[in-house]
Amino acid sequence: MAKLSSNLRAAIADRAFNVKVLARAGVLRPQRPDKALKIGATFLRWGASPATGTAIAAIRCPDEVSIVDEGGSLTFERVHRRTNALAHAFAEMGIGPGDGVGVMCRNHRGFIEATLAAAKLGASALYLNTMFAGPQLAEVTRREGPKILVHDEEFAGLLEGVGENVARVVGWSDGQTDGVTLEQLIAGGDESDLRPPPEKPRFVILTSGTTGTPRGAQRSSPEGLGGLAALIDKIPFRNRETMMIATPLFHSWGFSHFVMSLTTASTIVLRRHFDPEDTLRATEESRAEVLVAVPVMIQRILRLPEETLAKYDLSSLRIASLSGSALPGELATEWMDRFGDTVYNLYGSTEVAYATVATPEDLRAAPGTAGRPPRGTVVRLLDEDGREVPTGQVGRIFVDNEMAFEGYTGGGGKEAIDGLLCSGDVGHLDAAGRLFIDGRDDEMIVSGAENVFPREVEDLLADHEAVVEVAVIGVEDEEFGQRLKAFVVLAAGAEASEDELKAHVKANLASYKTPREVEFMEELPRNATGKILKRELRDREVQKSI
User: Fold this and answer.
1) Quick one: 131 and 247 in the same domain?
2) Residue 535 sits in which domain range?
3) C-alpha pair distances (Å), 523 with each of 114, 265, 388
């Protein structure tokens, strides 16, 4: 009975927290009685799903703008009706609950509408990386088995290895196309509302594949709004804002903000290609309160000429929402010194969703921190025997929350201990309970019997005034087992020698952490979300040794 009472009290506290946060954000607010009834009925019938979000937004604010892209703007009502039409068209093509809808689109309305149509059918949306080569695309579609592939016309040349049984639909074309287009399906579809499907929609987001072949991480729509409320409590999203989403929508960070925009009935601004100055221009013109990016995008914006940066007014911006790769402390500070204390940095992964959030206050107090867990999320740092490590000591990061994935589509999942999933990283906590990421758990370099995590060396080299970006890996060494090698990109017009950078490390860290080699590069290999592809650097070193 005592346990039941404790669980009941916890459930009541959680419900009160969710209501408080969502009311503060304006998500829960007074409505006309007729609208309130429609919204309540819609939520009861459809549950927490993107399909619910677009239907409720169409009830709450039908004539407000939902999407702005290079094709113009669409209101919430039009998006709802267009995705109804597309869902009916997909159904006529044989798509039903549980079937796969592949989406290989850049950031535009086609991505959004294909996702919402699939959700309205209870189908499974599979998001494909727009940087895939033909063989990768063929391998992933063969493994995941979508019935339809919605793709931008520019990717048509990559489809040769995709099975003929997969129907093709063009999501965006800059000119004439011989293929069936989303616009044609929408124009010929029935705009009437659909019945809720017997299955909840699922979403398959591919892992980054920085260390191997991307895997499909599957998750369903959440049972309630607790996960979103916990995130809003940390990152203060508000109702009816404008979000400039620069991050690719196929990545979990971009996708989560699309979902957030439905919850908050916010306008999203999309561009198919990232350009630093165009992002500033679109943010200013739309008076966006939220900019969604990955750290390398922020870095590229800040490297624009001073006269270019000075042209744009970002005073409307309240939140620069960052994730997807490591955020160097000095980069966050540089952005906030110029544009105000707007940086919120989320640490997580495709599998565990979010783990911690660093607020502007955290980043000012402890530059480079990944922050603290949101409500309802548990983060523990464990040693190799599964025991919690003391404060300040490096351990493997394990996370538990209601947003974690359901497993890989090909079978299997992440390592788990006591219900917590391994994030794949190692880190440490400071005395204030803030998390710091020290690197991937498979990136530890053992050099002369000493353990080195590259992140510490990378952060130090990135602090050098001549260095723009850096990656450190371990390469084979006959004497030490492994030696550290740094790949460095210098700032435009800057000069620094190999010996100077080695001395910079040696003056600040233990001597065994000093790279034995420094190679200067014009740019580092990255994926679409800005993560450095260290496997390509390692492959280069292996090829050199052959």
Assistant:
1) yes
2) 445-545
3) 35, 39, 39
In a domain, 15, yes or no: yes
Alpha-carbon span 12 to 185, nearest angstrom: 46
Number of domains observed in the structure of the chain: 2
Helix (H) or strand (E) holding 25: none
Q: How far apart are the first and last CA of the chain?
A: 68
- Could you tell me the CATH number of the domain that includes residue 40? 3.40.50.12780
> d(Cα 33, Cα 26) in Å, to the nearest integer?
17
Last residue of a domain, one of 318, 339, 360: 339
Rounded alpha-carbon distances, angstroms, from residue 315 to 284, 305, 341, 342, 546: 8, 19, 11, 10, 55
Q: What is the CATH number of the domain that holds 531?
A: 3.30.300.30
Count of CB atoms situated within 10 Å of the CB of 407 = 15
At residue 11, does pLDDT exceed 80?
A: no
Please name the residues in contact with 285: beta carbons below 8 A apart, sequence gap of 6 or more: none
- The pTM (predicted TM-score) of the whole model is 0.85
Q: Is the pLDDT of residue 221 over 70?
A: no
Let me know: does 24 contact 233? Beta carbons within 8 Å.
no
Task: Answer yes or no: do 187 and 327 share one domain.
Answer: yes
What span, in angstroms and rounded, lies between the C-alpha atoms of 268 and 405?
25
Asked if residue 1 has pLDDT above 80, the reply is no
pLDDT of residue 382 exceeding 60: yes
- What confidence tens digit (pLDDT) does each residue in 160-200 have? 999 999 999 999 998 888 889 999 999 999 999 999 998 88
Q: Is 365 a member of any domain?
A: no
Quote the CA–CA distance of 50 and 83 in Å, as a whole number.
11
Query: What are the Cα distances from residue 201, in Å, to 50, 126, 197, 403?
Result: 9, 11, 8, 15
CA 58, CA 80: separation in Å to the nearest integer?
7
Closest CA to 533 of 157, 199, 129, 216: 129
Residue at 326 is within a domain: yes
Residue 448 near residue 481 (C-beta atoms within 8 A): yes
Whole-angstrom distance, CA of residue 205 vs CA of residue 350: 7
Give, to the nearest 10 degrees, the angle between helix 109-121 and helix 50-60.
110
Give the containing element (helix H, strand E) for 472: strand 467-477
**H helix or E strand, kind and range, residue 248:** none
